[in-house]
């Protein structure tokens, strides 16, 4: 027994999940909600002027675009009013996650924070390192990931069932400072005994607030190919230099040089460069 005349009932279309913005390819469910309805009801759906056949379920999965939908209920050959039109807000643009890093260099014993852009309602964040197809972590509540290992990181969002994925973010390369190795350049020119030598220290990433430290490489073996050295800071290099070049004045004997970079206070340092040897007699070559 029905208390109300079906003709006086106006159903309501409800979207589940109730995302305010959808993307082409996502799937949601529409529910035709009728107060006092039951299992004996049939449901009619209309998309613009296209009428779907009656069905026993109050749910439907609409095609993935933003037409207007309405529904009506029917029981004992009597039909309710049609609901108000309901529109899906669908973007035709593929969403893409955006990845930012608090820093691209991990300090000694430290970490950096990666943030995958807030995509909105219902998204989980999938994190990748090196392999863009195998997630290493899934965030259910936010897009923050604190990492202490270097590597190539990216992220993407996913939601729904079946899962709909955003495009992967651009990759961010994270370095561990102690594993960075600068490269020492010495101009390949003939030198006279006592002439000055300009050293240049190159490192990536270059714009990280580096200070550069310059050393004399002192061999500890009579066999040059063993490359066993200790390093002595050159005069004027104790506090490092802001410039990545350094002039050594007047070497009169064959000498080896290395550089490294540091940042922060107290400083964290990169590894040492490979030694370069300057021959004061006029010949220059690098150690193999």
Automatic annotation (TrEMBL):
UniProt record, GO biological process: cell surface receptor signaling pathway; immune response
SMART domains named among the record's database cross-references: IG (SM00409)
GO CC annotations, alphabetized: external side of plasma membrane
InterPro entries named in the record: Ig-like_dom, Ig-like_dom_sf, Ig-like_fold, Ig_Fc_receptor, Ig_sub
Keywords: Disulfide bond, Signal
Ig-like domain span: 95-156, 182-270
Protein name, entry field: Ig-like domain-containing protein
């Amino acid at each position: 027994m029905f208390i109300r005349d079906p003709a006086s009932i106006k159903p309501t279309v409800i979207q589940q999940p109730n995302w305010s913005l959808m993307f082409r390819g996502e799937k949601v469910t529409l529910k035709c909600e009728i107060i006092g309805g039951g299992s004996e009801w049939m449901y009619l759906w209309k998309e613009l002027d296209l009428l779907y056949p009656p069905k026993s379920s109050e749910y439907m999965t609409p095609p993935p675009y933003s037409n207007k939908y309405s529904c009506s209920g029917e029981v004992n050959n009597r039909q309710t009013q049609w609901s108000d039109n309901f529109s899906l807000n669908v973007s035709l643009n593929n969403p893409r996650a955006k990845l930012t890093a608090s820093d691209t260099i991990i300090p000694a014993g430290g970490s950096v924070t990666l943030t995958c852009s807030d995509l909105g309602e219902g998204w989980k964040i999938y994190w990748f390192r090196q392999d863009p197809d195998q997630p290493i972590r899934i965030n259910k509540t936010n897009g923050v990931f604190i990492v202490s290992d270097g590597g190539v990181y990216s992220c993407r969002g996913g939601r729904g069932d079946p899962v709909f994925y955003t495009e992967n973010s651009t990759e961010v390369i994270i370095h561990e400072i102690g594993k960075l190795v600068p490269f020492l350049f010495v101009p390949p020119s003939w030198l006279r005994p006592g002439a000055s030598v300009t050293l240049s220290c190159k490192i990536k990433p270059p714009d990280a607030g580096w200070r550069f430290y310059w050393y004399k490489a002192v061999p500890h073996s009579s066999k040059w190919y063993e490359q066993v050295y200790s390093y002595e800071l050159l005069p004027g290099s104790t506090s490092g230099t802001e410039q990545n070049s350094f002039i050594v004045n007047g070497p009169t004997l064959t000498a080896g040089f290395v550089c490294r970079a540091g940042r922060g206070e107290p400083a964290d340092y990169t590894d040492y460069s490979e030694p370069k040897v300057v021959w004061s007699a006029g010949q220059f070559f690098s150690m193999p």
